């Protein structure tokens, strides 16, 4: 009988910071791994007769950064009012500057 061994070479976890405005909650959400096929652990083949220590396994936690297309897809009414209020504030400042000079 022939055995093959796979050894953990690196660990990488992908997370996302999520905010729920309606319930006023926030937290971290596990999305999977960073390696191909959404794997959390990257393996390497073990060699028979060789001793391994696991002192230097790289463990990485990455935050998922949403693309612009994903952000536009998350349209909320409160987000719209936030943008409009900022535009009104900028407009008010621009209009007030000539009167102060």
Topology, please?
Elements lengths: L5 E15 L4 E9 L7 E5 L12 E6 L4 H6 L3 H24 L1
Structural key phrases:
single chain; 101 residues; alpha+beta; 30% helix
Task: Give a structural overview.
With 101 residues, the chain is α+β, with helices and mostly antiparallel strands. The chain is 30% helix and 35% strand. Strands 1, 2, 3 and 4 form a four-stranded mixed β-sheet that branches. A hairpin with a 4-residue loop joins β1 and β2 (25-33). The radius of gyration is 25 Å and the shape is elongated. The model has no long low-confidence stretch (mean pLDDT 83).
| SS content category | alpha+beta
Main beta sheet strand tally, sense and closure: 4 strands, mixed
**What percent of residues are in strands?**
25-35%
Q: Radius of gyration from the CA trace?
A: 25 Å
Q: Give the overall average pLDDT.
A: 83
Terminal Cα separation, in Å? 90 Å
Summarize the structure.
By secondary structure, the protein is an alpha+beta fold. It has helices at 68-73, 77-100; strands at 6-20, 25-33, 41-45, 58-63.
